[in-house]
Write a structure and sequence with these properties.
By secondary structure, this protein is an alpha/beta fold. Helix content is 47%, strand content 21%. The chain has five helices and four strands. Helix 1 links the parallel strand 1 (3-6) and strand 2. Helix 1 packs parallel to helix 4 and helix 4 crosses helix 5 (127-143). The protein is globular, with a radius of gyration of 15 Å. The protein starts with a strand and ends in a 9-residue tail after the last helix.
Length: 152
């Protein structure tokens, strides 16, 4: 079984699905994740993200993106095997885009790639991990013709 992108709730109007597919393929090529099934991407408001952040990170505030790996894959709502999930907060993304003076589509793409890299097992806890994470982010985004925003 191969990896595929699964966005059941649709995408915000700022997103170009062809670019996201290109980023998804570049991630597979550059990170070679050991995952099989669908990667679910969902967009939520700040209230939903705050609840997820509280439950999974112990922080009572919304964050921009969260990612979850499911091993073994779980069965999604339409009998889709889901091996990973990326949740992006539309309101925090909008605030980030304004603060960083980038388009919302670039901010969404950066958050998407950030979540994908986490799904592949990478983290950015140490300075060295952060350098590797940033290099992967830039490499994937450049494949899609985009320049990522600053991650930290």
């Amino acid at each position: 079984m191969s990896l595929h992108l699964y966005m059941p709730g649709g995408t915000p109007k700022e997103l170009d699905s062809a670019t996201w597919q290109q980023l998804f393929l570049a991630w597979q090529e550059q990170c070679n994740p050991e995952l099989h099934g669908g990667v679910l991407v969902q967009f939520v408001d700040s209230g939903a993200m705050q609840e997820l952040s509280r439950i999974h990170q112990g922080k009572d505030e919304p964050t921009d993106v969260l990612s979850f790996t499911y091993s073994p894959p779980m069965l999604g709502s339409s009998d889709e095997l889901v091996c990973g999930e990326i949740v992006i907060c539309t309101e925090v993304a909008q605030q980030n885009a304004e603060k960083l003076t980038v388009t919302l589509s670039v901010e969404y793409a950066t958050l998407f790639v950030h979540g994908l890299i986490h799904l592949a097992g990478y983290d950015h806890a140490s300075k060295e991990d952060r350098k590797r994470f940033e290099a992967l982010t830039h490499g994937i985004m450049e494949t899609g013709g985009l320049t990522p925003v600053s991650l930290w």
